[in-house]
Amino acid sequence: MTFTIERTANPTDAATLARILENPGFGKVFTDHMVTIRWTEGQGWHDAKVTARVPFALDPAAAVLHYAQEIFEGMKAYRAADGGVTLFRPDANAKRFRDSGSRMAMPLIPEELFLEAVEQLVRIDQAWIPGGEGGSLYIRPFMFANEAFLGVRPASEYVFCVIACPVGAYFKGGAKAITIWAPENYTRAAPGGTGAAKCGGNYAASLIAQLEASKHGCDQVVFLDAAEHRWIEELGGMNVFFVRDDGSLLTPPLSGTILPGITRDSIIQLARSLGHTVVEQPYSLAQWKEDAATGRVREAFACGTAAVLAPIGTVRTAEGDFVIGNGEGGSTTASLRERLVGMQRGTQAPLVDGWIRRVI
Which domain of life does the UniProt lineage start with (predicted)? Predict the structure, then answer.
């Protein structure tokens, strides 16, 4: 498919861009352009464009506004040591996007078209990629139903779009240990639901628990299973790992209620290559508390595209707090983070051929 490229008539000037890149924050300021591709029943994918980033014009009856037929991805572009630009495992994002689309009864965008759309935006807005430590270009591909109708069925028209923003650290303090809240009354997903899909509804349902966490001075929420409210599943936007005193790692299994994180999979492969045993099995909040007290679990960390690896220092519950290890993280978490970031930024060789995709 050929992309029509229409550069913005009002690009951000160099001085303003330099100020933005000094301290971009996370998800606050966006690049000059966006990519759109449309899908219409009977016609398929068409009208691929790179244009100035502008608001969408949506009919008040657009299906996404009423039935939440929407999916998205999160990925990053990195400035390599030689000045080039790379993506980390973008093929995995493309595949997961298709998996999410299948679950949400949406058209499946071909993986190569997904990747070309991402690369088109990275190439035209490459000047927005921060070069400092921890900086990257966060890329948000998403798709939504824009057919105007009121009726519960899959839509017949969709828009696929890619936008991007320069970012720094996701959590304040960078790689410092975070505090998480274990709510009593909220769950993220249930068997047969959309927990394994990256759709906005999953995150909307988690916001009330995140608000509760903030009131308790916590950075994130850890969700338990819907059936027994006992088994740890994942954080509000990240997967979770536990490092035991024998050096092994444990993480909850992908049971259909947990998002199959690309960072999660990368860590599993990386840890095993370094000689760690990694097991995927159910793990309860009560067992975590006991293992933290006895020292059986010496570290825990959250992981995802936005935060990479974030050590968990304290878990807060209605019954009281418990601390993991020294409350500040540990050597295994730090080592895995260093190696993963090194691969992403090109200072270390990728563990698997094909993990790094050169854009420029």
Answer: Bacteria
Rounded CA-CA distance 225/299 in Å is 22
- pLDDT, tens digit (0-9, with 9 covering 90-100), for 270-325: 999 999 999 999 999 999 999 999 999 999 999 999 989 999 999 999 999 999 99
CATH match for 4-167 among 3.40.50.300, 3.30.470.10, 3.90.1150.10, 2.60.40.380: 3.30.470.10
H helices of 128-224, in order, are 200-215
Q: How many CA atoms lie within 13 A of 170 on its CB side?
A: 21
Among 33, 69, 222, residue whose Cα is nearest residue 142: 69
Whether the Cβ atoms of residue 206 and residue 183 lie closer than 8 Å to each other = no
Radius of gyration of the chain (CA): 21
What superfamily does domain 178-345 belong to in CATH? Answer: D-amino Acid Aminotransferase, subunit A, domain 2 (3.20.10.10)
The tens digit of pLDDT for each residue in 94-143 reads: 999 999 999 999 999 999 999 999 999 999 999 999 987 789 999 999 99
